[in-house]
Amino acid sequence: MKKISFLLLLVLMSCSYNKVFVDFDSSLNTLNFKTYQFYEDIGKGLNELDIRRVEKSINSYLKQNGFQESENPDFYINFISNKSLSSNSNNIGIGIGGRRGGISLSGGIPIGAKKVNEEFVIELVNAKSDKIFWEGTLVSKISERISAEKKEIHYNEVVTKILTEFYKQKKSSKN
Q1: What is the pLDDT averaged over residues 70-76?
Q2: Average pLDDT over residues 50-76
Q3: 23: left (phi over 0), alpha (psi -120 to 50) or beta
Q4: 8-state DSSP, 50
Q5: Among residues 74, 82, 84, 108, which one has the fewest Cβ atoms lying within 10 Å of its Cβ?
């Protein structure tokens, strides 16, 4: 039963993600970029635990795709999370009415947990020029009270979705 619940959670979470928006400097050749390092003050908008979750996820993704962390990197990484409360559109309506111009009364009761809109941004900065050369943004909705396990899943999915766009772009520039 736990496996089915977990799979259902993954399906529901993956359905709530929107498209990744990408902006980049097309004049910069990033084919030789192989090493990276995080900025010291990364993770604006996140608590310390979430910063570590995101760092771990980015490290894992980049290492799987042939990049290495280095003290003398080709590029630096920054990430930012901007959150705002989302209006809850799940309501149960109650109504009382009458006939022929009678009395009418209605109301709505919100159901479900409050949601938070999260705009998550990953910036890649050229180490030589200290200028952003690639930026990926993803907006998603998450529960206001999300467990540590679900946060880890959430940030893994967000990072993977954003960095996949960078990797696709890097691969397509080889051709």
Answers
A1: 97
A2: 97
A3: beta
A4: H
A5: 84
The two tokens of residue 126 are 């050229």
Which of 33-47, 67-81, 91-105 is least confident?
Answer: 91-105
pTM for the structure as a whole? 0.74
> Which burial class, exposed, middle or buried, applies to 17 when counting CB atoms under 10 A from its CB (0-12, 13-18, 19+)?
middle
The torsion angles phi and psi of 153, rounded to 5 degrees, stand at -60, -45
| pLDDT over 80 (residue 100) | no
d(C-alpha 27, C-alpha 50), whole Å: 34
Closest C-alpha to 105, from 121, 115, 94, 114: 94
Query: Is pLDDT above 50 for 12?
Result: no
Side by side, which strands form the sheet with 115-126? 21-24, 132-143, 115-126, 75-85, 35-38, 68-69
Encoded tokens for 102 = 């009678």
The strand pair at 35-38 and 75-85 is best described as parallel
Cβ neighbours for 127, distance < 8 A, ≥ 6 positions apart = 37, 72, 73, 74, 75, 76
